[in-house]
Design brief:
Layout: H1 2-46, H2 51-77, H3 82-98, H4 100-115, E1 123-126, E2 129-136, E3 140-145, E4 150-154, H5 155-159, E5 164-165, E6 171-173, E7 176-180, H6 186-198, E8 210-216, E9 221-226, E10 228-230, H7 234-251
Antiparallel strand pairs: 1-2, 1-5, 2-3, 3-4, 6-10, 7-9, 8-9
Amino acid sequence: MQGYLEMAYELIVAHGMKVVMAIVVLIIGLWIISRIVKVLDKVMEKREVNVSLRGFFRPLVSILLKVMLFISIASMIGIETTSFIAVLGAAGLAIGLALQGTLANFAGGVMILLFKPFKIGDLIESQGHKGTVKEIHIFVTVLLTFDNKTVIIPNAAVSNNDIVNYTTQGILRVDMTFGISYDSNIKEAKDVLMNIVKNHPKVLKDPTPFVGVAELADSSVNLVVRPYAKVPDYWAVYFDVYEGGKVALDKAGITIPFPQMDVHLDK
């Protein structure tokens, strides 16, 4: 027993100061890390970094700094850190290979949140889906389609492919086509349709609406009608002008042709 006590005393004398210093460094280091994380959060908030991105970076920076602190403390005590760092590197490589797709989605989410090609509430089209951006997360973007379906798209696919943002300019052109018969008066039909467009309360005056001949089809003269509207008013203008145009053309006696077939019976 005396021998064990002497050995313990020697260990305390030899390493006691190192342990005390390590504890002091640990306490001070954790305090400094918490201050750094708070300052980083304030900087990101001041620069209006997306909340999702801030929520991801805060714990990430905190974990990285704490790992570096613990490695430094282990080295102070006398623990060999070379092999420990090698193990961490190998584990990181293995995790990275296993989560290639997830990491790609993370990188895509960071790109989206930093460069902001769209924001929550924007009407966009991506990966064949069109809808309003409901949520932007680190790994996925959530769209709400016109028929009230929720579409979840991986951010890697969104950031690495074309994105059509219908909201950026604030207005959209509403493209419609009306076919009239070849016997109808083109100028009169254009005036009727232009009158419908100009009297619609949600059609913008600037840019100026356009009505013109687009095609001489097999059985009709096709007129394009192109008014502009604010993004939320797009569908109201689309449906109202189509309905109002049909009613107005009928009142003016302008025929809208439909496919017909003449059948001749040979006796």
